């Protein structure tokens, strides 16, 4: 599984009980994803909303000489109807109520809409739960109220407009300036 399902699968491998929320199509890839997550163990997929007019994201990796040459993504990032957004928000609230910690993995594909983020963060905050966010947006204000943000260096640099290097890179820059 990829995206948030990968996060759920990794947490389940650590013996964490997971309530996954997301959006998929009603297709064979959706069934394969659910089967894979069922095999992973403690992943409750009742919060995965299936939409008949969407496709489940599927990634095809072309391998040559034991390394990936190219990846072809088959996904639907078109706008989603308000009823699907409401269904995902309701599923998120149910999952938050059953959780100790909330993890929001924003892959920039549209599921972590402004409305869903706000509803999830507000619900978790009112319940006194920690909120961990893996951000994808340049504007981190959408994640206001989260306990922890985990951007990588590029995401942090994009969000702040500042370079983001290692301590070693900073020391080298200071040494060059002297």
- Name the helicity range: 40-55%
Number of helices: 6
Which residues form runs of ≥5 with pLDDT under 50?
Answer: none
Choose one word for the global shape: globular
Topology pattern, helix = H, strand = E: HEHEEEHEHEEHH
Judged by helices, strands and strand pairing, the structural class is: alpha/beta
Please provide a written account of the structure:
With 178 residues, the protein is of the alpha/beta class. The protein contains 6 helices and 7 strands. The strands form 3 sheets. It has a 3-stranded parallel β-sheet. The chain has a two-stranded parallel ribbon with strand order 1-2. The chain has a two-stranded antiparallel ribbon with strand order 3-4. Helix 2 links the parallel strand 1 (18-25) and strand 2. Helix 3 packs parallel to helix 4 (114-126). The longest helix has 17 residues, at 82-98. The N and C termini lie far apart (49 Å). The mean pLDDT is 92.
């Amino acid at each position: 599984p990829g995206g948030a399902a990968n996060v759920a699968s990794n947490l389940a491998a650590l013996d964490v009980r997971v309530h996954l929320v997301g959006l998929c199509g009603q297709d064979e890839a959706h069934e394969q994803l659910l089967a894979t997550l069922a095999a992973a163990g403690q992943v409750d997929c009742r919060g995965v909303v299936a939409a008949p007019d969407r496709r489940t994201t599927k990634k095809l990796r072309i391998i040559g000489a034991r390394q990936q040459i190219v990846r072809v993504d088959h996904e639907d990032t078109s706008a989603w109807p308000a009823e699907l957004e409401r269904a995902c928000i309701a599923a998120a609230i149910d999952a938050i109520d059953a959780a100790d910690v909330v993890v929001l993995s924003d892959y920039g594909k549209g599921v972590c809409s402004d409305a869903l983020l706000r509803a999830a963060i507000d619900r978790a905050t009112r319940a006194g739960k920690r909120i961990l966010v893996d951000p994808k947006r340049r504007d981190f204000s959408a994640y206001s109220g989260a306990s922890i943000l985990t951007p990588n260096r590029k995401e942090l640099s994009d969000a702040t407009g500042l370079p983001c290097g290692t301590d070693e890179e900073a020391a080298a820059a200071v040494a060059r300036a002297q």
